[in-house]
Write a structure and sequence with these properties.
Low-confidence stretches: none
Oligomer: single chain
Number of strands: 0
Order of helices and strands: HH
Number of helices: 2
Distance between the termini: 86 Å
């Protein structure tokens, strides 16, 4: 029984090609599943980013008011503004911040 080397090499190459095709099919199947999960994560991220952007735009005026009230309070302590006026501005700003926090809950 003589074994032809060329026939043996061709058989090994066909076997290797078959294993490679099966491996590629499994890999593409796993890749498809992974891409579906990534798409879901990206959609969730888009939603969360939109909510954060909306809240940031909503709270920006309040933060600006609080910062200007704190500047006014510091200015009042230096004697440039009355303490009552600066405390009044600070109280208004803090109450508006509390109202936004309550509204969000």
């Amino acid at each position: 029984m003589v074994v032809d080397v060329n026939a043996l090499l061709i058989a090994l190459l066909l076997l290797a090609a078959t294993v490679l095709v099966v491996f590629l099919i499994i890999m593409i199947s796993n890749l498809t599943t992974t891409l579906k999960k990534v798409n879901t994560i990206l959609d969730d991220t888009k939603t969360v980013t939109g909510i954060v952007n909306e809240k940031a735009i909503e709270t920006k005026p309040v933060v600006d008011d609080v910062s200007s009230a704190l500047v006014g309070f510091a200015s009042g302590l230096k004697g440039n503004e009355t303490n009552i006026a600066s405390l009044s501005n600070l109280a208004k700003s803090l109450s508006s911040m509390v109202n936004i926090i309550r509204k969000n809950k």
